[in-house]
Amino acid sequence: MAFAHSLGGTRHIFDDLRMLLARATPLRSGDALAGVAAGSAAERVAAQHALADLPLAHFLTEAVIPYEACDVTRLILDGHDAIAFARVSHLTVGGLRDFLLAEDDVAGLGLTPEMVAAVSKIMRVSDLIAVGAKPRVVTRFRNTLGGAATLAIRLQPNHPTDDARGVAASVLDGLLLGAGDACIGVNPATDNIETVMRLLEMLDMIRQRFAIPTQCCVLSHVTTTMLAIQRGAPVDLVFQSIGGTQALNESFGVSLALLAEARDAAQSRHPGANVMYFETGQGSALSAGAHHGVDQQTLECRAYAVARRFEPLLVNSVVGFIGPEYLYDGKQIFRAGLEDHMCGKLLGLPMGVDVCYTNHAEADQDDMDALLTCLAVAGVNYIMGVPGADDVMLAYQSTSFHDGMFARAATGKRPAPEFEAWMARMGIGGDAMPEALSPALIGL
Known about the structure:
4-stranded parallel β-sheet, globular, 444 residues, 15 strands, single chain
């Protein structure tokens, strides 16, 4: 079905929903690289006008990727909650924006990822922050994440050679500065079972020795983690990168069935807990040649449908990590981070954001400070804590432990309640910098 809107004497025509969504997307380098971006600001505004007038019900009749060609499309449409959707089914995309800004309760509306992507495309930054702050998505493992007063931090103690002493030093650094309540999560430099098991055992030893109410994760491929579970390793969370198309997930070496198997394996160790940890990022589908001509932000929202299926503890948009080919500069990264957070929350996900950029992007720490502050105001579930904000293994820039302390202090947020109580027992000061090593942590 074609769509059109006249602007300044020019009639702009969009062949189908996929084209309309792409042309309405605020400018980003990945869509330009894919050849789906608007050719001018006028075309973009015309597409946004046409999109605003589109009834939400239309999204249930036209798929951006054919039903028979993609299991993510089938997951979205087969799982649609028509009863919840009835509350907003009479609205247009523009009407949904007004509804989201006016109402306090915006959770559980039965929206599809494409509907959520569409409404974000006609929002200002202030809209993204205001709406993103409304839904609270609470998850639980050894502590409680996502509460209204909580801003959690993933402690990311990566090391370029997976050296146990280097990882342990970063863990100590982060714990002393209040990081680690979201999880203590290591990206291994090498994805082999021996390294993964060694890191899992070390992290679990630290956690048990100091009775830390948190969860640990080694971010290996899901099949490596499943093998570690089979060998008796102390696996808490199962990690996997995911995307919004079947082809992209296949490029990651995963399927919906495999993810279900991994979740079942982890829940056999931790019944009743949220045990999955997913990472996503705008541009990943294009980088894998698996985008089907769909804009990267809509595909990012479709990835959230995959994540939602498995009730994760944590979902993280690594917003600037994929590089300037997809998000060119600080301005594009800034908006994408706020889009991802709001869209994930509207779809019921416990959203975190890695406020980050690669060293060849046109961005700097001032850009990241702005995004971090806005995300904290918007109620992001968690952020990253990286020593010095510089990941020496992945070679990119993120947020430091000190940045997390700032974000909590500036917005009146606290660590997860169980973790904050543990900090008090260990003699770790809440908002103040530690003057000396906590005696209880000597020996780590």
